[in-house]
Amino acid sequence: MTTPFSFKRDVLPHIIAVLVFLLLVAVYFSPVIFEGKAPAQHDLLQFRGMAKEIQDYRAATGEEALWTNSMFGGMPSYLINTRFPGDWSGVIHTVLTFSLPSLASNIFVTLLCAYILFVAMGMSSWLAIAGAIAFSFTSYNIIILEAGHNTKSLTIAYIPMVLAGLIYALRKNLWIGAALFALGLTMNLHFNHLQMTYYLLLLVIVFGIVEIIYAVKHGTFAALLKRGLVLLVAAVLAVGVNFGRLYTTAEYSEYSIRGKSELTQEDESPDTGLDREYAFNWSYGIGETITLLIPDFYGGSSSASLETDSETYQAFTRMGVPPVQAEQIVEQGLPLYWGPQPMTSGPVYVGAIVVFLFVLGMFIVDRRWTSWLVAGTVLSIVLAWGKNFEAFNYFMFDYFPLYNKFRAVSSALVIAQITMPFLAILALWKLLREKEQIKELDKKLLISAGITGGICLLAWLFAGTFSYTSLTDQQLIQAQFPIDAIRADRESMLRSDAFRSLVFIVLAAGLLYLYLKQKVSANIAIAGMGVLILVDLWAVDKRYLKDADFKPEVVANFFQPTQVDQLILQDKDLSYRVIYLPNPFNDARTSYFHKSVGGYHGAKLRRYQDVIDRHLSQNNLEVLRMLNTRYAITGDQQQPVQRVPGALGNAWFVEEVQAVQSPDEELDALTMFDAGSTAVVDVTKFPIEQREFAVDSTNMIELVEYEPNYLKYTYEAAEEGLVVFSEVYYAAGWQAYLDGEPVDHIRANYILRAMQVPAGEHTIEFRFAPKAYTIGNTVSLISSILLLVVVVGAIAYGVRKKPSEEEPIVKQV
């Protein structure tokens, strides 16, 4: 018998939940929402610089540039800021987040998706709200926002919705679950942080293995296969909506530092993907895993503030530093982190209460849930250990499909920050609704509290036995910082947080014990646990993104042109390049104003990276000349900008071709050559018969039109010649035209374009019109229409269809 619809029961609780989430983000991000302030998000500021030319072109023409010359001599814009009109999923995100400003919208949608997961499990709204808080306010979700990793944050945010659809489709209503799964995966893929999606895939694989084992054991494999095929179709549809983004990314990855190197490999590392050392540089320490329970066990961040009652402040004042100056030093941030990573913005802390409930869940939650949630957690932790657990992780890197495309393996703890709150809330749900059926529940509650609280107590008691020595300590000693006082503050932080976590565990365990003894109601227990979880996580989050971190006009101030910028911008030539010498290859601010030889990006072209490593980092003047580097920003107050001698311009005629037989020879040849007269060509890839050319003094070539994706030159030559263009060669999209007719062009000098041209007066054009973008955008449009039809149809069909006879998960608390 169908239960009649009730607004109070079926709609109002969800409205209240949304209002609670809006209130939480409004309070936490009040400087953003009400004052228009923003934190100095490093990666977001870099994004503003790298995307400036692309966004300006879009604003002026309404079209996508698809290529930008503002970084690394030129590169596709796919992984910077490219829009795909055929992909409608951006509209869905705007609707789901009520157009909240960035940061606030990130956490709001995380809360919403986690809430959907717990409601799909059949939990009451109040318990689902507590679960959403546990999911959303883990420290990593806040720390990555402070760093400016907004797309990573949003990719993580939609993972709970994917899991909600997956579980709902397999355990309850196939069609509604499949629609939710398709929608969640579409949004997860939309933000194109494929490393986070990859971790989701690993978790789904673990879940799938457990489900297959149970299906075979209980004779329901055929039913599982049927549902799995429907979910596969939903996944294909989600990929289809994002096909433009994924297709262009896949194409570009083959040419980027994540693709195969063309140079001879001197080691035994894989011939595709990232360098192993680079990928594993940020590996979580094995002992560092305890930060899941005790946040500042390893000192918190590499730039943490201290109060005036700290040992370091007192030591500075004893050294004769004026109190005001000493206070400024400890407030602006000190390297208090003493773990094994090169640096960190903060620990991954899922919450003392969440860890306690997670352990309890291993005792009381059904094995069908604990099997994959615990396995996923263990896998997450081991992957995050990276080079600290070589045997497993190097095997994964070398042989597991696509795993070597990703860096910063500590990010794998994203899986744990999903599985641990999930099992924790399942444990709370189980305890609240089935306390009479669970054997020795009092004992299991005590053991769980004893294990987690005991670890905290031991850490507090034996805090004095650790060295608190950091990789940066030698630098501090050389700078005459009071290192003993800093180490004393590190110990104090560990002791304080160990005791803090112990208190939260005792409070949570005490509240649940009172519920078991019928001293408080289930609703009071849920509310109390929700408040405790929120207070625990919120206070730690505020260490890393607090109100004082929000500043007015951060972006505007960062991109205020300096006198050097203004001086260079007086040069009105259509195109020339600038190099920022203090930090050329980790700086995108220069790209905001100029076309930069350097830049900031995690997936630059591999050939360009080779040139950086071998030549630009060694200040090879000939390479700077061929890149048309006209100005160098020195950072020197005496002479802040210098004119680079002999910049070759946008294009030039050469006298000879230096033929080489391999990429290695081609790259080596740039060490000793005259870029103005010689073109180095790998003739095994680009056969060229004529090797010498007569360059007449009357030869002339000039760039007369410039757009990011279009270049027009006019030239005059007395005889046939070879022109080298100071533009990066990228065959997957750039097409050359001579007097309007398509012609071939070749690669020269390892990274540049070149073309053999006839005598006379002619016009040369380069247009960037990659087929991958056109095809991908078309597929995205078709898939977006299909997704809309399928989601509406599946929900309508699922609502009308009789409830499944399979295992329900609909009991309410």
Automatic annotation (TrEMBL):
Pfam families recorded: YfhO
Transmembrane domains' residue ranges: 12-34, 91-118, 125-145, 151-169, 174-191, 197-216, 228-247, 346-365, 372-389, 409-432, 444-463, 498-516, 523-540, 779-799
Source species, domain of life: Bacteria
Keywords, in A-Z order: Membrane, Transmembrane, Transmembrane helix
Name of this protein: Membrane protein YfhO
